[in-house]
Design a protein that fits this description.
By secondary structure, the chain is of the alpha+beta class. The protein has 4 domains: about 10-105, Phage tail proteins - horseshoe like beta roll fold (Roll), CATH 2.30.300; about 110-205, 3-Layer(bab) Sandwich (Phage tail protein beta-alpha-beta fold); about 210-240 and about 345-424, Elongation Factor Tu (Ef-tu), domain 3 (Beta Barrel); about 240-340, no CATH class. It is built from 10 helices and 22 strands. The strands form 4 sheets. Strands 1, 2, 3, 4, 5, 6, 7, 13, 14, 19, 20, 21 and 22 form a 13-stranded mixed beta sheet that branches. Strands 15, 16, 17 and 18 form a 4-stranded mixed beta sheet that branches. Strand 6 (about 80-95) and strand 7 (about 100-105) form a beta hairpin. Helix 3 (about 130-140) packs antiparallel against helix 4. The longest helix has 11 residues, at about 130-140. It is flat.
């Protein structure tokens, strides 16, 4: 079976909120689009439905069920997917005397729970960020799904302030530094895939092995196996934005934090952040980062001169009972690192479409090989554009004519695979 073959819907059931009525949607489904994103804490699905006839007591599905939001949808597609979701909204409703058309917008059960839950408690300064994240996911989202968490080396005390679980988890992700051999770079991601919830370090995600290799070629593959891993189409969306990175202080920044205990500010030497200090320590998906010089007459690069000033107040003893002078999560240890990690990850982005592969998930690393633009040997691959990419977001498209996976890929550097991206 080819990965691009038409989808076979074994079961697509929608159950009314009171549990009294269940409707089989298979014959009315025009298409299903399934979405994951490393910056989204929930999976989303769109189902386009066209229904004819009196399905429920002389009425259509929209009025007969009735569709009001919150209904459970069980979806099983042969050899591809077996999951359950809940209706978050119904859009594009068009009805007449004979037919009805509408789009079911689905989400995970935890996305609905998130709107009704709040994080009210205080987390101690002795608690690692990863432990706090695990407690929030299990206690307040009450998920039974698999949860993958990378242990963090830094601790952080904070008060939930009655914020929603998703809000707190994405906020914590930017402060966490991974516990790994060698030096880890600050920056985590909280997201959901078909295998469960992830609270993962960017460093560890890009250090993972490639799960698949895809090739862009003008030659028609000789067998089905090769065809399944051929890039159907691709386009480069972004290829470095130097001005924006300079404005954000990605390459170098000056940090000045006020210490309310002694009334001093961070010393300039200690407060200067330079990307060069982390280039050999951080993992990346391509070759090393090489920055241009400031001017034709200077030996300094754009990574030697701070382009952004970051200020703040150091948290001293505010989270503990009694007198304490301990710094709660020193921003010097994570703030500029996280800024560098998140923004450099988006250095190069491209969108591509391949035959439907539901084994792929957001956060996976894949290898892409693109032909070089040359009049010489067309079998050679472009050494700059080819290499490892992380799947930022993906969409599995299912219909009765074919199955396709479209992805937005990102990476932080150019060039082929470099040993520096492997955890030592």
């Amino acid at each position: 079976m080819s990965l691009s073959d038409p989808s076979i819907y074994e079961e697509i059931l929608i159950e009314s909120n009171d549990g009294s009525t269940t409707v089989d949607l298979r014959l009315g489904i025009q298409s299903i689009d399934y979405f994951e994103d490393i910056f989204s804490p929930t999976i989303t699905v769109k189902i386009l439905v066209t229904n004819t006839g009196n399905t429920i007591n002389g009425k259509g599905i929209y009025q007969g069920l009735p569709l009001r939001g919150g209904e459970r949808v069980t979806m099983r597609i042969k050899d591809r997917m077996d999951m359950s979701f809940y209706v978050s909204s119904i859009s594009n409703v068009i009805t007449d005397s004979k037919t009805e058309n509408f789009v079911l917008n689905l989400c995970s059960r935890e996305a609905i729970t998130n709107e009704t839950a709040r994080v009210p408690i205080k987390f101690p300064t002795s608690s690692p960020i990863s432990a706090s994240a695990e407690q929030i996911i299990t206690k307040y989202l009450q998920t039974s799904k698999n949860v993958e968490i990378d242990q963090s080396m830094n601790k952080y005390g904070f008060i939930g302030n009655m914020r929603k679980p998703f809000t707190v988890l994405t906020w914590l992700a930017s402060k966490a530094v991974p516990e790994m051999e060698g030096d880890g770079t600050a920056g985590y991601l909280f997201f959901e895939t078909q295998s469960g919830y992830k609270f993962k370090s960017i460093d560890k995600l890009i250090s993972a092995e490639s799960v698949e290799t895809y090739i862009s070629t003008e030659v028609v593959p000789s067998n089905k196996d090769l065809e399944d891993f051929t890039i159907v189409s691709y386009v480069t969306n972004r290829n470095q934005n130097l001005s924006e990175n300079l404005r954000l202080g990605v390459y170098a920044s000056m940090r000045s934090f006020f210490n309310p205990l002694n009334g001093t500010f961070t010393h300039p030497e200690k407060g200067t952040f330079k990307q060069d200090d982390y280039v050999d320590k951080s993992r990346n998906l391509g070759d090393k980062i090489i920055l241009p010089k400031i001017s034709d007459t200077s030996e300094l690069t754009l990574g030697d001169t701070p382009t952004r000033l970051i200020t703040g107040v150091i948290d001293l003893g505010t989270q503990e009972i009694g007198v304490s002078t301990e710094v709660n999560a020193d921003p010097l240890l994570y703030q500029s690192q996280a800024l560098f990690r998140y923004n450099s990850l988006m250095t190069q982005t491209l969108t591509l479409t391949v035959p439907g592969n539901t084994k792929l998930e957001a956060g996976n690393v894949i290898e892409c090989l693109f032909p070089t633009n040359t009049t010489g040997d067309v079998s050679e691959f472009d050494q700059e554009q080819s290499g490892l990419y992380m799947i930022k977001e993906l969409c599995h498209h299912f219909d009765t004519e074919g199955t396709w996976t479209s992805m937005k890929l990102v990476r932080d550097t150019f060039g082929q695979h470099n040993p520096n991206n492997k955890e030592k």
